[in-house]
Each structure stands twice: as C-alpha cells, then as structure tokens.
Amino acid sequence: METGQLDQFDREVDVEYRGEVYHARDNGAVCRQVKPDQRKRRLDDVWTFGHPSASNGYMRVAYEVVHRIVATAFHGEQPSEKHIVDHIDTNRRNNRAENLRWITRLDNLLLNPITLRRIVIAYGSLDEFFKNPGAARDAGSISSFEWMKTVSKEEAQESRNRLLTWADSGQIPKGGQLGDWVYGGQRPEEPVVEEIPDKQSLTPMAMQRNWKMPSEFPMCPDGIGSEPLCEYANSLEFGTVFSRNSFGESLTVVAEQGDELLSVLCSLTGNPIKEWALTRVTVEEGKFFHESISTYFRLQGAMKEHCKLVDVPLDESIDDYS
Description:
By secondary structure, the protein is an alpha+beta fold. It is built from nine helices and 16 strands.
C-alpha cells in the first residue's frame, strides 16, 4: 500500500535540513541525498515515508523526524524556538504537507479542536491540564500509536472530517479501536501527548531526547573523534553503567552499531515495573544524542526492537543476555 502511495504526489521540492539535503514530496515522502565526496549511506537516494518511533509514533528517517523535514520544505523554516510542527488531524504518520503547520505549543492546544478535545478527555478539563500536565486520568492510553498510518489524500480528508465531527460533538467516546473509527466508523479513545524537547543532560557532551529525567552518562566520550560511535560502543561492556539519575541506574546489556547510530539495550535497577530499556545514540551538532526508545517488560521484546535498529536478524538464543 505505502509503496504505491510514494508515487502519488503533486509537488516535489528540494530542502536543506540540519546539514542534509532532501527531496520532499507533498504526500509526506522524503529522499535523503548523498553527501558530496562521501560514500553512499544505506538510506541515501531511497524514497520513504520513514519508520515510526516506538517511543512517540513520529516517522523518522535515520535520526531525523520526517514531519519537520516536510514542514520546512513546504512551509519554510521554523519561525521560532517556540514553534512546533502540528499534525492537524493528530495522525503522526500523516506527514502530507497540507496536514502540517508551524504553530506554538499553546496555540496547538487552543486552536486545534481535535487536540483540545483529546486533552479534555484525558484530563477532565483544560484547567486540570494546566495545573498538572503529567496527571492524565488515563495515562496508559496516551502511549498507543497503533491507529496512526500513512494515508492517501482522500483518506486524509475523510479521517480529518471524522475527527473534527467528533471534536465538536462534546461526547466522551466509549468502545472500539480508534483506527476502526477514524477509517471506518467507530469512536476514538486515544488522546495525544506532547513532544518532549531535546535537552542537555548532566554530562556535557550528552544530549537527551524523549528523556524527561535529567541524567548523566558516565561512559559518554569527552569529544567527537574520527569514529565516535565506535569509541562509545567499545566503552560499554556488559554490566557497565550507561545512565544514572535519581531513580537509579541502567546497566549495559548489549551495545551495537547500526547505520549512523548506536543501539544500547540496558537492564534497569531500582525495582522498576519494566526492567529493560532501549536507547538510540546518534552524533548530531557535535554532541551525542541519547534517545529513549522505550522500556519493556521482557528482554525478548527489547532485543527484538534492538535488532530492528541495527538491522540484524533476531538471535533466538538470547539467554546469554539473561
């Protein structure tokens, strides 16, 4: 389905974004270009809608989010640091140009009726949201992105109309899967959660992405060498402390390089509900960015996602990491 949709577009433009040049189409597809005088990377010259992040549902190509590339291509540079990209229909996989706009976080809450309605359902009222954004009534439901998908122009318009009708109804939805409702006729249940901005960690060379708690990364290199990710990986032996914060430590289970990334699977100390965590490390803007992918109840689930990141087959005998 998505393969055919890649070629269904009206406009195609070139855009420079964070040191890379992309072709971008108004259907939300992007194609990263080979850097001059450098070897071709695995994702260069490949048209794609991207791959969904396990932690927040946004589509990514390498370590960049697709919606920012498309928004920059068709709507210009980010107006200010306060502006984010708003998915008008709240479908994070629908990166069609007409579904994106630069908007401030507050305006995103107040001017997008779909987002506003979801927040009211999740928190009870806007007043409760502003009092404590971390106290959603149904915190478990806001982490699911299964209903979201890449859509055609016709599907995008139909699903947006359905969501707007629901937002105006004033009714709290019950029952059914959100995807069934958006694309078929039932009612939605999923509120959205805001992007967590990138932030400086407690370690000078380390940045945090999708990572709320200020943390330190003891084994993070002090500088960017000729092979920075390889150097970082070599320092992360089994049992090494990868990160540390007020809740406890994460201990390295396996650290492995993929295409322009380092995947680090850890066990968590301090009796957490989920014992395993996965982090993607990339080098951006002269620093090491640590992106929290997700936490997991079972090692096998964490290993499965780790293998996807580094593009290797899942080793069925994972008892060595137990």
